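Structure request: Insertion element IS402-like domain-containing protein, Yinghuangia aomiensis.
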Amino acid sequence: MVPDELYELFERVVPPAPVRPQGGGRRRHGDREVLAAIVFVATTGCTWHQLPPVFGPSGPTAHRRFTEWTKARVWAKLYRLVLDELGARGELDWSRCAIDSVNMRAMKGGT
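Returned structure:
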């Protein structure tokens, strides 16, 4: 689910695993396993609890790591790296990305 090129970019932005000073406990699932589980949930629309056991981490574990990485802005950093990589290869057509104006509806009851 996670191509090598994407995972190499991901490794550049993911924070290191926290050190457990007390030691012991269960082995932490690898980042690549968890990333694959997150990609599966995002692309299939299943819930975290419906995550098949073949991925390794449980749904709650994948969701917890997703939340950690979201707080660390991993997704925004990865998105930027992917755009930079594609741009460097000449595989982005920026002329198709121009925005002349943006219209947004206000949320009801919002400030």
